[in-house]
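Data deposition worksheet. Section B asks for the primary sequence of the deposited chain exactly as it was used as input, without tags or linkers unless they were present during the calculation. Section C holds the resulting structure in token form. Section D is free text for depositor observations; keep each observation to a single sentence. Incomplete worksheets are returned to the depositor.
Section A, Depositor: J.P.
Section B:
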Amino acid sequence: PLFTVISQGASHGAGDFSYVGIDAILEQMRRKAMKQGFELNIMIVGQSGLGKSTLMNTLFKSKVSRKSVVSTPEERIPKTIEIKSISHDIEEKGVRMKLTVIDTPGFGDHINNENCWQPIMKFINDQYEQYLQEEININRKKRIPDSRVHCCMYFIPPTGHCLRPLDVEFMSRLSKVVNIVPVIAKADTLTLEERDFFKQTIREGLRANGIDVYPQKEFDEDADDRMINDKIREMIPFAVVGSDQEYQVNGKRLLGRKTKWGTIEVENIAHCEFAYLRDLLIRTHMQTIKDITSSIHYEVYRVRRLNETNAQQNGQPPNTLVNPQQANGVAAQHQVLTHEM
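Section C:
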């Protein structure tokens, strides 16, 4: 009841003559956010057999992947890349979240994988376009449904060698329009030495090809941010193991993979880096990932599209930016834009 809320606020500052109550805005924001709930849209990309569905189920401790929900008599490799999404309402301790998992079956599974990134790029841009059209409506909705892809988890096969041309091509193109988080799939197939060498080689490959994966250094807001994100950047790509099977280990029930020589514990950081990935995506950086999607990636798309529209109306050639610096300058405005969310 309103009276209870007001009386609680009044009693909080009782006896403190200098207390104004500005800090109460945090509780107001918390209540509003709890009422509205949250949205998170994650895309998973990688060739079949890398455990994408299993890892998503492990991350959210629910059957959230497409394969877990849609049963097919036989798993066939599609002739072209299909984009399939499925949404779930998840609730934990009173916090509601609409999670959408976007799967890309067929990616990297063919003899000729040239341009296999194009349908994925088109899908991401289509979501931006859909949001833009809702935004520029005269009678727009009070809360625009957000189908924009907040994060793309890219699964790298555990070859132990280096990034393949397919990996480089995909990440170099898509990192410009979406937050990419690369992971080494099924990392339990590598020894610790092989894993460390592979991670280092991948980091060098990303730097050599100018691929900026999440968290992007240019979007760090302050020194504290940079210090936290530098530690994450040193760990990328995350070497992960997924499992939705529980086993008894030393009297405790744990998620893991049982082998002849022992059990690989998914959430044990001595065994794999799943816990670090989960913390990044859910516990520490989820809002930042969404903010960068909205204030950087979507903003660049929005500026480009509106400039194209203006150019056409003014009789200039189509696809010509009226002011190209406007789009390029969006990233520099990140700090201001983020706080408008």
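Section D:
DSSP finds twelve helices and nine strands in the chain.
The chain has one domain: 27-67+76-243+270-309.
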